[in-house]
Amino acid sequence: MASTVSAAESAPVHAIPLVQGFTPDHPPDYGEILRCTHCGLCLNQCPTFRVLGWEPDSPRGRIYLMRAVAEGRLELNPDFREHMEVCLACRACQTACPATVQFGRLVEAARWQIRQALPISPGERLLRALVFGLILSHPSFLTLLARGLWLYQAAGIQRMIRKAGWLHRMPRALQTMENMLPDRIPARGMVTGRVFPAIGERRGRVALLAGCVMRTLLAPIQEATIRVLTRQGFEVVIPRGQVCCGALHVHAGERRRAQALARRNLTAFLREEVDAILVNAAGCGVAMKEYGELLGDDPRWAEAARAFSAKVRDVTEFLDAAGLRPLPRRLSGRVVYQDPCHLAHGQGVRAQPRRLLRALGLTVIELPDGDLCCGSAGIYNITHPEIANALLEEKVAQIRRIAPDRVVTANAGCMLQLAMGLRRAGIPIPVQHVVELLDEAGGDSPSGAGT
Question: Rounded to an integer, what distance in angstroms lies between the CA atom of residue 429 and that of residue 443?
């Protein structure tokens, strides 16, 4: 494993030499690296440091390593890559950091730096091309995959495999993906290119990101979101031609592919006259709010990207600011709200979902270390299942102790991860999105969407 490097060992240098003289495109910002004061307040907030107890796998340790690479004292190598990739990129360290170091952007840039400099195996190259270049980049392929998963479930194949115990013979990654599937996969996903009129007095016009998982496996939540927004007086447009936001690509060091997706979304969304661009998945929201940085060096798209990002709002953030119209139903019961990392730490949206839940009549119970990552982190629970499971088991233990009526969150990955953990532990508590409860309070019957 790579060792940490003291910040005092070398004076700062301006050149950034890398492996065999290679100079990367968009490396971690050296000025941002230097802003770290090495105080250590980030350590207890870092999930990987709490699980592993190893300094190079803390935010401070990773920044040491980035600085050593930038100053030419450490070669980019597989050990450096491992320390960067074992990070969940949850950004909890940013909340704890008194110097407000933007660690999320640093680690994403480091992964892009690694992607450019280090060779990868043919198998990984093929997997990246399949996942990031094909499935996530082309909605038609994602829709086809979701349709196959619906058939897998509807035809009883899933039930047969689980009953026979064959699932345990599958590779670990496939087991995790199968276990995360919602209980009811919709037969059809979300259709783009549609406009939904406001109900009652019109308060504004908004655009909604269809997303990837949200438009397919969790399409009922998108439908609930549209119902909530239209009942609240907002016309909702689902722009045609939109694609994946690119969040998973950025996390994986696939910056070029993320930029291509961002340009396609700018083309789709900016031709619509809207007051806000809404998203109901926290990781997507961060990526879209950072399009201005992602395309900041592109003279053709930089200004449009900044204008786009300025309009992006999480749906809970937007509804809280707009104020809820009176709802026909009051809900009751005790709920646990799990902060999605990229909503709480990446966007600073914490109080808004809680205010919405309390406005429905619900009692919101806080989890100890409630804003600590649940282990989902994009595809982290697939690539690093041991650490992800350790974090998930702690969440499940806390939920068991509190015994709420529902677990509520505001991100697709968190929903699927928490539902898997509770199901695995035999705890029959539903996991729902905030908008599902808003939909339930706003209609004649519960929305029926959920995990």
Answer: 22
Helix axes 434-442, 315-322, angle to 10 degrees: 50
- In angstroms, the CA 182 to CA 342 distance is 22
Mean pLDDT of all residues in 85-111: 95
Residue length, the chain? 451
Any idea of the CA torsion for 366, 372, 377, 383, to the nearest 10 degrees? -130
Looking at residue 22, what is its pLDDT? 55
pLDDT one-digit tens code per residue, 28-59: 999 999 999 999 999 999 999 999 999 999 99
Adjacency order of strands within the sheet including 334-337: 363-365, 334-337, 406-409, 431-433
One-letter amino acid identity for 210?
A
DSSP string, 51-62: HH--GGGSHHHH
Asked if residue 222 lies in contact with residue 215, where contact means CB atoms within 8 angstroms, the answer is yes
pTM of the model: 0.89
Angle separating helix axes 315-322 and 351-359, nearest 10 degrees: 60
Q: How far apart are CA 31 and CA 109, in angstroms?
A: 13
From the CB of residue 196, how many other CB atoms can be counted at a distance below 10 Å? 16
Q: Report the half-sphere exposure of 156 (CA within 13 A, side-chain side).
A: 2
pLDDT, tens only, 413-436: 999 999 999 999 999 999 999 999
CA gap 355, 13 in Å, rounded: 48
Classified as helix, coil or strand, 428 is coil
Q: How far apart are CA 28 and CA 109, in angstroms?
A: 5
DSSP designation for 129: I
Q: Are 447 and 224 in contact (CB under 8 A)?
A: yes
The owner of tokens 């399409």 is 219
Task: Give the pair of three-digit tokens for residue 251.
Answer: 């996390």
CA distance 69 to 378: 26
- Both tokens of 86, joined, read 């074992």
3-state SS class at 317? helix
Q: Which of 282, 264, 254 is nearest to 353 (CA)?
A: 282
Instruction: List, for residues 323-357, the tens digit of each pLDDT value.
Output: 999 999 999 999 999 999 999 999 999 999 999 99
